[in-house]
Sequence to fold (336 residues):
Amino acid sequence: MPLFHDIGEKPKRVIAGIPTVSGRDLQLYKISYTGNGPTSTDHTQFSLLQESNMNLNRAINNKTTMDLKIKGKTAVITGGDSGMGLATAKILASEGVNIVLSDKTHEELEKAAEEVRAQAKNDSKVIAISADLTINGEVLKLADQTKAEFGGADMLVNCAGIRGAAGDFLNLSDEDWYTSIDVDLMGAVRVCRAFIPQMQEKKWGRIVLIASENAMQSYEEESPYNACKAGIVNLTNCLTRAYAREGLMINCVSPAYVATPMTDAMMDQLAKERNSSKEEAIQWFLKNKRPNIVVDRRGKPEEVAAVIAFLCSEHVSYVTGSNYRVDGGAVGTAFG
Fold:
């Protein structure tokens, strides 16, 4: 009977299929032994197998990474002064992507841009442009500056958002609702409207919108946020149907309870209400408000950014209109 064994063990009859990393494409080595020992052909094949194993080990030790094939392209990232936006910018800059980092802030945004520049590779350029996504004129100016500096955007990652007003539905005013809608839904509408024409000109584009676990699994105290994030999932599908044939791959990502300034503020408030430490508030929240998070911790911005970066890559040429949950299991249903 064939068996698989480690290199160094005296082989019996062996069939081993190992992909090489040195340039051979998924070669399969079949090594047969007779009762009198291996033939000269067997020795040659066994040497190839050993070489393949060594190449594979070298790749692992060198932490070989996937080439996203987006070097020289330009990404606009909103909500970029912290959290998932900043983490995404660092990954894309390390792939040789030019970065237009945007947020409402000024000093914080420039500080974040410096962090991104430290990660930039292959002469990629990083610029910071302040813009308030609730003001259409500032969004249009952001698009114009991107066009002037880089010839337009190839990718758009909209990480800007707020939790907005929370509490009993009956106690939330129209203004509470309008504030959340203006940022969390209309902000995405405005940036997509401004940058899709630039991608149409290039006949290539990647858009990643940030939804939330709340889009599939609502929480009663966050009704405006729930509704806006559900709107983002639907908007993603709508835009896909309109523009995918022009080479624009449009997807959204739904994080849950990630360590960002927004959830930090939530935990600070909870700690104050419970007269506890912030860490105690986090553990209480996990147990009582997010029991489905099976990894039993907050997410990291870098964990979400890794998925976003992949959705910006050349490799997703057949992936569009999808919602990617990065939620540690927060959504209880398998089909949400």
Observations:
- The mean pLDDT is 86.
- DSSP finds nine helices and nine strands in the chain.
- The chain has two domains: 14-61, 74-326.
- The domain at 74-326 is CATH 3.40.50.720 (Rossmann fold).
